[in-house]
Structures are given as C-alpha cells and as structure tokens.
Sequence to fold (399 residues):
Amino acid sequence: MRRWMTVGALAALGLAGCDDGGQASPALELAADAGAGGAGAAGGTGGAGGAGGAGGEVPPDCSPTEGGVHGTLYTDSDGSDASFYLAGMGEADASAQLAVHLLGAEGEVALRTCADGRYTSEALADGVYLSFADVADGARCASRNCPGRFARAVAAGQVTVVTFGDSIAVIGDAPMFPARFATLLGPLAQVDNRNVAVAGSTSDQWVPGARYYERNLAPELADADLILITLGGNDIMRYANNPALFNDLPGAVAGAEEVVLQVIANLTATIQGIREVNADADIAYVLYPNYTQAEDDIMWRTVTRVLGQEAVEGVLELARSSFPDEIDDHLLFVDMFSAADGLPLDDYLYDQLHFNDAGQQLYAESVFESLGGVLVGPSPLGAQGATPLGLTRHFGLAP
Fold:
C-alpha cells in the first residue's frame, strides 16, 4: 500500500512524529506551524472565511464545481440534521468555523472556503477520496458524519474496521456489506475487516458481560479504528411475533416504541463498555431501512395494512432520534432509512429481511458516503457500483 500522505500533511492531522504518549514531536509541530494559515500546502481549509479576504484580496468563489466536492460548514440551530442524508445549512443556521479536508490517493486536495460557510473543490480526477472536518474536543457533530480516528487511520494507510450485531451483516448475497465497504476504501488504505456479527442475536446479548460481547466483540476492540453496529431488528421482530398484539393495535405500537427505547439503552451500555477498552474509536450505528417499502412481500404488506405505514415509520424515526450521541463525541450514524427512501425495496431484498447483491451494494455505499467517502469515476465495486458518490457533503455542529 502506497504511503501517499506527506509528512507535513500527516503532522497537520496529528498522525506523524508522535512519541509514545501520542504527542507530535517539536520538529513536526514547527513544520505544521510553518504550513498553517488557511488552505496551505497540505490543502486543508482554514475554516469558514479562511481563504482569501486578507489584505484586500479578492474572496474565493465557493460556487459548486461540476465533478468537485462541495457543501456547507454550519451550526445546526434546531438539531434536525440527524444524519449525512438530512444535513444541510438552513436559513436559521450560522456558518461554523471548521477545517475540512479532502484526502486522495495522491495526497490532500485543496479546498476553498467562504465566510458564508460554503466550501468547494475543483473538479476531481477519477478515484476514491475521504472528506472529513476537524471537530474540536467537547464539540458535537450534529450531522453525525464527522469521523475522527477512522479518518486519521485512513490517512495513515491502515484502518481496522469491526462490525458486530445481527444477521444483516452475515446473511444475504456475498460478499457482505462490510467487505464491500472495505473494497471501496481499498484505493486509500489497507483495511483489516473484522465481521463478528451473529445471526439472530438481540441487543441484550451484546452488552458487557453477555456472551457475544465477551466472546466475539471484546477481543477485537483494543485496536479498532471504526466499529459498525447493526442491531435491534431481532428485538423488534420477536416482539412483533406475538399474535395477541393484533387485539390492541395502539398498544402494539406503544409496545414497539418501548422495545426501541430498550434497544437504545442496551446500545448505550455496549458503547460505554467499548469506551473502557477503546477511548476514541469511531462508532457508527447502521439504522435499518423502511421495510414497508417492500410492497411485493406479503409480510410487510400485512404489517403496513394492520399497523399503518406511519406507525411503522414512527418506530424507525424514534430509533433515529433517540440514538444516544450525547453520551459520546465519536458516534456516527449510517441512516439507511433515508438512504433507501423511495426505493422499491423488493429489488434489494434477498428474503424478507436480508439483502441481495443490489442491497449489499446499497449498504456498503451508504456506509462509505456517511463516513466521508467520495467516489469519482469507475467504482471499485465494479460495473454495478454507483458513481459518483459523496460529492455533496455538509457538516453541522450542535449549538
């Protein structure tokens, strides 16, 4: 694997020249200081308004360029931007002071930023890139698409990804989505892909002390850079399999919401257990799509007819809005509910719950985009892979 980042760029990202305590060496601190001041040699931006404007210079043009990355850096005033797919600067949102980076196989790509929070790049050459923003300690990324350790690991050329949870990650058309995600990242870094998910498992089986946490997950945590979670679906399915629920439909929906909140509580305990072993790995929860969009499947047609589509969507929305990002600054969100919105889900299903080749592609590409991936030109996933990906990318901070 080519080590493509320059020493100056690595120093600016806090990746090179570290002693055993994780501190950059004085020489590299000086090198980073020498390159500071907006969009320097390493190519990162200096935050909103960081390029141009000084000394009477003409301010930069941040209009989107065809084939380039563009977006906004802002403060999410109402907290509505729950994922990569929902992010975007609203009329009430103020621009935010954030440095945003775009890494490619040949190094860091220069970006232009403007005082109104917009940023853009020139048209990109074909290839895979990673876009991410520097979020200060103590600040929270409201759009939940701001990786830290994962981005630094990719920049260094080696990243460890651990996936745990239920059968979504292990049943369907192979290769499973974690392996396809690793393939998408391949041009940027060597990926150690560890998939320890267990078909049929529920969220309580992955809390610290439980069998799957101790046997499957705990041994993989110490050196993980990114942890993907797909969990909670079996909790809901086991609840929904009770025929007595149809005698009290309002109560059934309320009970499903209680199950979701218990899943969130279990996930919170699992995340807290992870943090005792690994303090800064990025943790991304992969939400399920809206299965009621599978209109050809008799089970999902029945669920929609009996409970109502709004009720089913409300349960998934509760999971999205209740995700416990306030407990941890390094939590990310892969919003498959939004990624699959409007799609004929039958075309993506292997069976009633799991995903075929097209579904695995969709999952992998959604994880890739949500965590900062950008693709221009042919996909590493082959002719069936979508392209381009991730060219519009907004970063929102919590107030």
Summary: The mean pLDDT is 83. The chain has three domains: 1-36, 47-147+387-399, 149-371.
